[in-house]
Design brief:
transport, transmembrane helix, mainly alpha, cell membrane, AI-2E-like
């Protein structure tokens, strides 16, 4: 009996040790080795004495299995430069898509957009007159009506005068053109370029042939010209209505537009709006003054050189001056060509000298002095803006491009300075929580 009880106790002890080994292995994440099945303990026959059994050897502990090394996060595996490039790329793609959709929408309603922008430019030109009349005690409605009517009457008279001058001098111009072509042939024959009569006749025959073969194209262009005239008249009416309401209700329209801006950014936009309008007004008024000076001085030069239609050419120079860089070249080239075909080569060279001299004075003296630093734009930006505007919306886009760039430059500069001052003050300055430059929530 004592031996049986002792064997039972030894078996229970070994079983407890094996269970402890399994528990430790489970906590450490390792797999325990095979555990031998404990021997069944039986009571010996009382009649046959059994020698005391030696305790079996303790089973060897199972070797711990090394856990698999953890794989790195895929985000950390991508190099930093590639991650930055990817973040910038998808944002640029979103901006490009937004601009593409915006350009498509503008192209679909191009006439309305150009008419409204033209009305905005005319409003910037006439609005100081409305302000001056209101300061003298004239009611707002009467001041708006007087300015609107007088402004469009002046523009209409200028257009009528140009058309009248062209029609009145058309017959004389035709005779002078024929005489000028004859003189040009004679000059070419006697020039050092060794041009022969056969070469001149060959060029004339090719021009006549080109005109004869392209008669259908010229006819279709005339039909399209009628459609263009209808669109121009529609745009003029839209521009007139836009000007009228902008002159009368401009401040209230601006307040309504501010309500569409999120409240967090409303303060900054409210400060940028008046500065943008000041820049636009300065640009339009300065361009009108510069164009008027160009037209007067070049027109005086054409008059003293006896170039036909000097006054209409001066008006064309004034209108083309609203297209920066390109307009001056085109109007100057037109004046030189008219002088060449109606007078002689020497007169054309003198007209070219006058045009270049006036344009140099304009570019280096008048524009910096009249326009000032408020609307100063780099020449490269002007060239690219005019090219892009002409590709998108033709001549109207070229006229609108530069004031748009000038206004954008002013607005961006103000918003950058506004954000910097807000950061220095330590206030949110209209920025939402978590936005760049905004303080943390709850901070001052």
């Amino acid at each position: 009996m004592p031996r049986w009880v002792g064997g039972l106790g030894a078996g229970l002890t070994r079983l407890a040790e094996r269970l402890e080994t399994r528990r430790a292995a489970a906590e450490s994440g390792t797999q325990p080795g095979p555990v031998p099945t404990p021997a069944r303990v039986t009571a010996p026959e009382p009649s046959v004495p059994q020698p005391a059994a030696a305790p079996p050897a303790e089973p060897a502990a199972a070797p711990a299995v090394r856990p698999e090394a953890a794989r790195p996060d895929p985000v950390t595996a991508v190099p930093w430069g590639i991650r930055v490039a990817a973040e910038v790329a998808w944002r640029l793609l979103i901006l490009a898509g937004t601009l593409y959709v915006l350009m498509r929408v503008i192209s679909a309603v191009r006439l309305v957009v150009l008419a409204f922008v033209a009305g905005l430019l005319i409003t910037a030109l006439l609005q100081p007159t409305v302000g001056a009349l209101k300061r003298r005690g004239v009611p707002r409605g009467l001041a708006t009506a007087m300015t609107f009517v007088s402004g469009f009457v002046v523009m209409g008279l200028v257009g009528w005068f140009v058309a009248w001058q062209v029609t009145e001098n058309l017959d004389d111009l035709s005779q002078q053109v024929q005489h000028g072509i004859t003189e040009l042939k004679r000059w070419l024959l006697n020039s050092p370029f060794h041009v022969t009569q056969d070469q001149i006749n060959n060029i004339a025959d090719k021009l006549s042939e080109a005109i004869g073969t392209n008669t259908k194209d010229i006819t279709s262009a005339g039909i399209e010209g009628v459609q263009v005239i209808i669109e121009v008249l529609t745009g003029i009416l839209l521009a007139m209505f836009s000007t009228l309401f902008l002159l009368y209700d401009g401040p209230r329209i601006w307040q309504w537009l501010l309500k569409l801006v999120p409240a967090a950014a409303r303060e900054g936009v409210a400060g940028a709006g008046p500065r943008a309008w000041t820049t636009l007004t300065a640009y339009v008024r300065g361009t009108v003054i510069v164009a008027l000076i160009d037209a007067i001085f070049i027109g005086i030069g054409l008059f003293f050189l006896n170039v036909p239609m000097a006054v209409p050419l001066a008006v064309f120079i004034f209108l083309f001056a609203f297209i920066p860089l390109v307009g001056a070249v085109v109007s100057g080239a037109l004046a030189v060509v008219v002088a060449l075909v109606t007078r002689d080569v020497f007169t054309a060279m003198m007209v070219l000298v006058v045009v270049l001299a006036v344009q140099q004075i304009e570019g280096h003296v008048l524009q910096p002095f009249i326009l000032g630093r408020a609307v100063r734009v780099h020449p490269l930006a002007v060239v690219l803006a005019v090219a892009a505007g002409s590709m998108i919306a033709g001549i109207g886009g070229a006229v609108v491009a530069v004031p748009l760039v000038a206004v954008t430059n002013t607005v961006v500069g103000y918003l950058r300075a506004y954000a910097r001052e807000a950061t220095e003050r330590g206030t949110d300055a209209g920025l939402p929580e978590g936005a760049p430059g905004a303080p943390p929530a709850g901070g001052s």
